[in-house]
Q: What sequence folds into this?
């Protein structure tokens, strides 16, 4: 029998092999093994992890994603963030996209003019020109900070180093996608894994002479900062920069309605294999730049653009088992463990079955041969079951009525659908160990406390060792005990300590998001933070005797509906949730909410909106106020500067309260005059 020390030695050796191959692939663009060999090595490591659970305390293949960036280039902040795009996968998603736009702009389900362009599977970069001269070139990086790759971008001869035009803005930031054509890649394929990797690796060469040897191309697709703004449409912008000798995609065109959008999508999908570059969808943007400006952005993506992805890749495999997983909100999710199969270049061993109804509807059973697909970057899902290949002795899967913790599960009644939810839930919260662990994973995640070194596997390890059972325990860790664990050296422990200390200072919106109230995502957390402003006011929700008034005021907030209010009430009605949240607050320095833009015509002014508006939605009015330095409150108080009253069904109670407190009341026509002044 193999000794434990020998197993650990073998495991560490294989992990180091993976890390080395990742470095060769991502940083040096010189992979030394094939994709199949790499996948085989990963599977060997995964088998070792499953067979010997003690190896998780040492490390895991799941924690190794890509390779850390090399400190080869100077880091530069983008003039404007390079945001990600939200995705659409079918006609319904595109209809929803247009509906959201119309609702925000207060349009009556009007057709919208879109500008369509193929989504290149390349490397994003931004070019910055001052008075027509190229002065900076940045990689996308994390969207906020990019790498200075100007010299490498200059090796692409078709990128203008100087714009010869009297019309060029003083400041012009052009976004583009760098790629290598399929035909050109054939000539260099022995040195790179795929065209995208070749483009990325070439742009990250320290020696620009080496970059110059690679046949890089680009398409300009958008803009960041432009001063002064001289463009009125997306199509007009691209037409103009094309006149200035920038390359644009010849398949880009204007769409007048959703039918044209779908026809264009189908046409491009049919010809994409014949193109000399890889595309994975089509980007649709509102063509009118003034409407783009009105719509603005969420924290992650622009409201005025979407990537309509091509159909997901499919593959056939077999279900080995069906297991149950418990999420942080108590949702009971069935997951199919399948025979490993490659889908879209990724080895898949799990597929979501969504819920009990989905299993019944598709009659999914253990042992079935199934077709699975990956849409975007989400977990694979089961498309269909091949019942012809089903074993005659197969039995229907019986969905459990109990959580893994042993508690009964429920299906909640939805007031909006007038039906029971499809998802079963455990209602024990932190009293269910499975929920508690998932809540802890959520709290340390990037979007919440963002504690580097305290990932999912470490949370599980520290849970098993009784180091962390509740969020506040994170800030009381015994680092001397951690040092004694295998795989934890002085450096890794010090790094963890620093990351935890840094995370103690957190914004109010991040804190609200982190505590994991159901239906409260990042955007809703920000809305709530702008209402409460301080953690002291937020804690009023803890007192059930006084929280009713606070919750009633939340109904006035755009983006916070009955679903969210009920969820907040349910969360703090649970004594355990309240105690745990209180204990966590004691360990932190929670910063008051501050509006992103404190400058503008509404600087330090506080607004509230009531009633419907003719020229815009309340959401847009609120966004305009905030973008111009104002703050939007959720209730009438002495602190309020203006109550803006729309023409359609304003709340009389609010108007009366404003009059009593001598708050200035602005009618819709006055509001429009201010905006145009």
A:
């Amino acid at each position: 029998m193999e000794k434990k020390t020998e197993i650990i030695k073998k495991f560490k050796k294989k992990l180091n092999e993976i890390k080395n191959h990742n470095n060769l692939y991502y940083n040096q663009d010189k992979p030394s093994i094939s994709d199949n060999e790499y996948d085989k090595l990963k599977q060997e490591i995964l088998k070792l992890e499953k067979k010997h659970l003690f190896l998780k305390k040492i490390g895991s293949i799941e924690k190794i994603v890509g390779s850390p960036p090399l400190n080869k280039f100077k880091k530069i902040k983008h003039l404007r963030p390079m945001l990600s795009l939200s995705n659409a996968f079918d006609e319904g998603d595109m209809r929803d996209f247009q509906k959201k736009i119309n609702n925000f702009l207060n349009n009556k389900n009007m057709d919208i003019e879109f500008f369509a362009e193929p989504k290149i599977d390349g490397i994003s970069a931004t070019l910055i020109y001052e008075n027509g001269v190229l002065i900076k070139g940045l990689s996308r990086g994390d969207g906020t900070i990019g790498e200075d790759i100007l010299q490498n971008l200059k090796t692409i001869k078709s990128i203008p180093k100087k714009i010869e035009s009297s019309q060029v803005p003083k400041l012009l930031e052009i976004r583009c996608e760098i790629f290598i054509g399929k035909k050109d890649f054939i000539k260099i394929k022995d040195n790179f894994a795929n065209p995208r990797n070749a483009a990325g690796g070439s742009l990250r060469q320290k020696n620009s002479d080496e970059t110059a040897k690679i046949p890089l191309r680009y398409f300009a697709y958008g803009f960041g900062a432009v001063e002064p703004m001289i463009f009125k449409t997306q199509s007009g912008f691209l037409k103009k920069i094309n006149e200035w000798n920038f390359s644009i995609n010849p398949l880009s065109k204007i769409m007048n309605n959703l039918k044209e959008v779908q026809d264009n999508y189908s046409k491009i999908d049919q010809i994409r294999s014949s193109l000399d570059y890889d595309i994975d969808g089509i980007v649709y943007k509102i063509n009118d730049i003034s409407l783009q400006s009105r719509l603005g952005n969420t924290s992650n993506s622009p409201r005025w653009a979407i990537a309509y992805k091509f159909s997901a890749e499919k593959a056939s495999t077999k279900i080995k088992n069906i297991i149950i997983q418990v999420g942080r909100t108590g949702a009971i999710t069935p997951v199919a463990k399948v025979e490993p199969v490659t889908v879209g270049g990724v080895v898949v061993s799990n597929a979501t079955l969504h819920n009990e109804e989905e299993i019944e509807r598709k009659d999914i059973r253990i042992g079935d041969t199934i077709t699975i697909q990956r849409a975007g970057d989400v977990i694979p899902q089961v498309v269909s079951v091949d019942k012809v290949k089903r074993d005659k002795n197969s039995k229907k899967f019986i969905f459990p009525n109990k959580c893994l913790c042993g508690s009964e599960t429920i299906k909640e009644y939805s007031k909006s659908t007038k039906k029971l939810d499809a998802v079963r839930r455990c209602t024990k919260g932190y009293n269910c160990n499975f929920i508690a662990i998932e809540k802890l994973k959520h709290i340390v995640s990037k979007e919440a406390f963002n504690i580097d070194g305290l990932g999912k596997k470490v949370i599980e390890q520290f849970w098993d060792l009784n180091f962390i059972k509740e969020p506040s325990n994170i800030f009381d860790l015994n680092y001397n005990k951690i040092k004694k664990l295998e795989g934890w050296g002085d450096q890794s422990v010090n790094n963890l300590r620093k990351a935890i200390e840094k995370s103690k200072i957190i914004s109010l919106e991040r804190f609200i998001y982190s505590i994991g109230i159901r239906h409260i995502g990042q955007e809703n957390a920000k809305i709530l933070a702008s209402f409460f402003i301080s953690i002291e006011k937020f804690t009023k929700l803890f007192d059930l005797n006084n929280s009713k008034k606070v919750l009633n005021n939340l109904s006035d907030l755009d983006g916070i509906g009955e679903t969210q209010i009920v969820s907040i009430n349910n969360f703090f009605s649970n004594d355990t949730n309240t105690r745990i949240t209180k204990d966590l607050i004691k360990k932190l320095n929670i910063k008051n909410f501050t509006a992103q833009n404190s400058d503008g015509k509404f600087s330090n002014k506080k607004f509230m909106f009531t009633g419907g508006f003719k020229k815009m939605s309340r959401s847009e009015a609120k966004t305009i106020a905030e973008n111009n330095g104002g703050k939007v409150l959720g209730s009438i108080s002495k602190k309020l500067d203006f109550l803006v009253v729309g023409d359609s069904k304003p709340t009389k109670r609010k108007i009366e309260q404003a009059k009593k407190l001598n708050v200035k009341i602005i009618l819709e026509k006055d509001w429009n005059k201010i905006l145009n002044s």
